[in-house]
Here is the input.
Amino acid sequence: MNMFMTKKLVHILSVAAVGLAAAVTTHAQPSIPAEYKTGGFAIGCQSYSFKNFTIFEAIEKAAQTGGKTIEFFSKQKLSKEQPDVIFNHDSPEDVVAKVKAKLAQHKIKAVNYGVIPIPADEAGARKIFEFAKKMGMRALTTESTESLDTIEKLVKEYDIAVGYHNHPRKEKNPEYKVWDPNYIAELVKGRDPRIGSAADTGHWVRSGLKPVECLRILKGRIISAHLKDLNQMGPDAHDVPYGTGVADIKGCLDELKAQGFQGNISIEYEYNWDNNVPEITQCIDFVRQYGGGK
Here is the structure.
């Protein structure tokens, strides 16, 4: 092979390698910087844990727990000074700027938004993706299975992942299927890898399912998690600090770690609503100790 042919082959292989790397990067789930991780996981609060307070107060409380990330929901008031202003994807630029400044003040990263209905209408869905991009979020959380085609198109365009959340099974509504991890696994099969599950372990427990087994069913498709430990199996259970309930939180962390999970873990603590910071702090500490105190 002459020198010209050798150089040409090297060039072709180099281009192919770059193209392959770009393809892998393009289709991988977005990552969260290591500085926002505790115990090896990007763990923080779902602001719904503080639904009785404002967004500003939720950010302050999230910082008090020792977490470094936050997931917002769409119906929370902005601040005590502006109690009539709701922070969500319809917020004007000045409100978005105030929230971003508050996050920066407390060194908290917004990583997710939900559970939010995402319409099949592209213009309506795009507004939500634009908001997530503006906030620097990694993912969205939804239950809008009917919008999957639109979601996949925008996931590819924005490089923002989408996880399908599960509430408990509804005996009187057999059409509600997202409670079942097998349904979600089949729903996202063959779809962009940035589409998967926003795994709520507490609602699996309320549905009579074992969280570790559910996580295994969804292997490679877990976008984010509402990691919860509950006091008992069944619909009447309530949140308790990690490691004190029936959800096998250590087993869940082991499984997520084994899967190479890169998403956020949000503590959505739906108990002791007015004073749950100490219990959420216990959850954060559990994960910190799991990771060797880091």
Q: What stands out?
A: The chain has one domain: 45-290. The chain is about 40% helix and 15% strand. The CA atoms of residues 83 and 169 lie 35 Å apart.
